[in-house]
Amino acid sequence: MLVCSCILVLCTLGLCGCAELNGYSNQSLFPQDIDTVYLEMFDNQSFRRGAEYELSDALSKRIEVETPYKIVSNRDRADAILSGQIVSIGESALSTERETGLVLEKEVELTALVNWKNLKTGELLIDNHTISATASYSEYQQQDIKYASTLAANNLARKIVELMEVKW
Description:
about 170 residues, Double Stranded RNA Binding Domain, 6-stranded mixed β-sheet, 3 helices, about 35% strand
């Protein structure tokens, strides 16, 4: 009888859920008081031009698809503003051919500073957070730095959207 009542108590506690204990929940991962976001064109402090367009385009698409927010073109109608700057675009060799020393595979790294401000409350949700993303390419596969920088911009956009989630 004691075993049956222990099992009954454990089953009852197991059905209670974990939301009150900061465990599982079905609430949105994004702040609920924001509906619209104005996305400023990212500044580019590097010598490679065009990355700011790739990043802003990838970021606007990711925000529209992966968050509950709508991108607006008028700053006055936005609940929040997302801005930042590309600090650097670096390139490094990943692998070289043993006999000739020619580079077989290279990597591009984009580093950016990101700011996200709630215009309703004036709160900085992300304050000068440095984030970077990489992508590799190989000229032997008919890929170039433009290809890799586009991939790195998409990876960076994914990471920025992850930053927009509420901390648990």
